[in-house]
Amino acid sequence: MFPDEVDSQSEESDLHGGRIRSFKHERGNWATYVYLPYHPEEEFRLLLKEMLLVARARGVDMTPQEEFHLSLSQTVALRHHWIQPFTQSLRAGLVHCKRFICSAGRLRIYCNAEGTRTFLGMEVSTGHAQLLDLVQVVDKTMAEFHLDPFYKDPSFHVSLAWCVGDLREQMKEGIQELQSLVDDHEEGPFQLMLDCVEVHCRTGNKTFRFPL
Hints:
Layout: E1 5-8, E2 29-38, H1 42-57, E3 63-64, E4 68-71, E5 76-79, H2 83-94, E6 100-111, E7 117-126, H3 128-144, E8 157-164, H4 168-172, H5 175-183, E9 192-196, E10 198-203, E11 206-211
Antiparallel strand pairs: 1-11, 2-4, 2-5, 2-10, 3-8, 6-7, 6-9, 7-8, 10-11
Helix pairs in contact: 1-5, 2-3
């Protein structure tokens, strides 16, 4: 029934890494989002560990993301019987999108709409136009199913770590110290390079891949 499915994970994984639903769970509704995966190298993990130690010393205890990605959609509720036509629509829309590379290097603080999670993210500096093209495709599919589009004028980023509550003001006090760790990296300013070769869609416990 789902030829594009590549793996299954516990539905509870949607609650991990700071991601929570902004809608009440109902039987037959699957939490769904579209994204570009980021597969970090050891250099990134060491830098992140160092940043979290500095944040902890300032009184903010952050948890690193279990998986790293760049979102191309909000998390929406998808009916189970919509999964196949939804993913088919995404595949058809993405068929003409080409591969590209985007980079990120500037830290920013984000908070979810409910004010229950604060995130440390790394904002994209190149590849913004190509990302908007992908969002346009995803938004078109969302509209077909009367689902919410992505944010207007989005700040594309990869979330690095999260903490409970709205700690934006407290985090902003130390953001320059964290940024200096990125800028003063031993081999020059660190740049997160995201090789955008495949769009993923996670819906409930299923993940679908769409090669660019």
